[in-house]
Amino acid sequence: MQSAAIEIRDAEFFYGSTRAVVVPGLEIAKNRITAFIGPSGCGKSTVLRAINRMNDLVPGARVTGEIRFNGHDLYGPDIDPVEVRRRIGMVFQKPNPFPKSIYDNVAYGPRLLGIRDKARLDTIVESSLRDAALWDEVKNDLKKSGTRFRAGSSSGCASPAPSLSSQRSS
Amino acid sequence: MANLIDSGAYRSQVKRRNARTLIMQRLSLATLAVSIIVLALLLLNVVNQAFGLVAQRYTVDPDTLAERPLAELSPPELAAVLLEHVPRRLLVIVRDNLYRGDPAAFTRLTLGESIDGDVPETVHGLLPTDLPEAERNRIFAELLGLNVSEDVLRAIIDAEIVKTEIDKGWSLHESLLNRAAIEVDMLTNYPDSELVFKSWLDVRFVTSQLSSRPVETGIRQAILGTAWLLALTVLISFPLGVGAALYLEEYASDNWFNRIIETNIRNLAGVPSIIYGMLGLTVFVRTFEGVTGGRSIVSGALTLSLLILPIIIISAREALRAVPSSLREASYGLGATRWQTLSRQLLPSALPGILTGAILGLSRAIGETAPLFGIAATFINTDPTGPGSRFTVLPMQIYAWTGQPDELFRFNASAAIIVLMALLLAMNSAAIYLRNRAVNQRV
Ligand SMILES: Nc1ncnc2c1ncn2[C@@H]1O[C@H](COP(=O)(O)OP(=O)(O)OP(=O)(O)O)[C@@H](O)[C@H]1O
Ligand SMILES: [Mg+2]
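YS: structure for the whole thing
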């Protein structure tokens, strides 16, 4: 067994004053696919969202205990949540594309990191869509705006995050 | 199941429910009808006063001025009419229409220097005072024929020679239904006048400057003043309002200080506009006179900005809040900073809503008189030239006209109301268009 990428210890997850989930201890291994399984409302999303600090966006959401990523405390005082989200990607339960073209959606992440070079963006977009097995389907509609598409996940692929948490409805 | 539906109790319940629906439907239809009728009455009332018969007479009959009707004459021929009938007025006419500098300096400049337009080579270096009067007037007439359009020349002839006078005007309603009584009135009271149908709203009215004669007056200054004022108001209130909304919606934490600010903004939206007028007068016109120039467009725009800031802030916040939270999450989830999410996702998708609010705020501002009391002028006949100019606006002009003793100004006021309502309608249509676009864009 390889060393853990993410470790959670004695963590409690609150929404306001309600405690939603308790996680006494959890290790998520490197280079493996780990799945959380449980009934609806048991707290899978809450834990997952806490790992890349998406719960910071929910007013009143709060975490106690320890969540470590490669040994760093994700809720430590000198941690920038934006940096955390850049390193730990997230694919949402419901696809939520931006109201833009497929190309702009996929290129959104790389552009946030300041990549402006057209050729580089083109390669990233193509390889991300190939990874998501969508390239052949959408390659002719890349620049069409407002196309409803299910490539939401491929924008996650284009995020340069080494770690990726993904949600699929059961 | 089948016998349940067939039962009498079920039937009567359905019947009662449908009856209730029908009553509500009729009621809402009735309220709609009432509001449409009120609107129609309002429009009819305005239109009624803006068109109608007038008793009109000329000091000089225009048909005697030339062999052919004035409408057929070319600019040089029209200028010749002026030369023949009012030679002494030509210097003033040329100065007012073809020269843009200080009026007192006009006679000290050569024609080449002073005239804004074509000047024949032969007279380029001449001073107006150099020449014998007859020769000078001939040259002026030539310059007018070269540089002024037929429409303007005809308007000058009308003001200088024909001098239309209107003795009395009738409303559209009277003109259409009471023609016989009007004709009797004409014969007994105005035997020298001619009965003609006049539209008080026409191109001349929109483009002419204010005058003390109802026949001649126009709303050019009021329209220009309104345009200047709105432009400055947008420039001041839009960035401030959107900035404040962004701060309150995205950055402000939920503490007592911010909650007090929020409550106050909502209350400010309900403060009567005359109070903003008093504030503007004390603060912008008096206290900061050195900066704003006193009763200037800047003072007016600052006052109106205060008036509509709450509207802009509230609607911009609603627009930002209406952005689906999935968009926010998706952006943050990809590692965007707060500012990146704001500028790339939230602002673009909230923009139509923000614009709608801003336009609705402006269309409130455009119709306000009370906050501009003491800041805008009532009678002013110079065009505004910059943010420091004195100015008047359409509603102010309308108000001033309705208070005039000469009843004919009522007709001018109604014509100006039609212009104001057309402007408002245009702005509100723009707002609706933007809102529809916003709705269609949401996937
Ligand atoms: N924003 C919130 N505010 C308050 N309570 C919340 C919020 N989001 C989730 N909860 C509560 O936290 C608990 C865990 O919710 P969570 O969404 O993590 O469950 P889940 O396992 O992902 O469920 P599902 O399988 O339906 O996605 C639930 O009881 C839910 O009611
Ligand atoms: Mg979930």
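YS: worth flagging: Residues A 15, 20, 38, 40-46, 58 surround adenosine-5'-triphosphate (ligand 1) (CB under 6 Å).
IM: good catch. Also The two ends of chain B are 41 Å apart (CA to CA).
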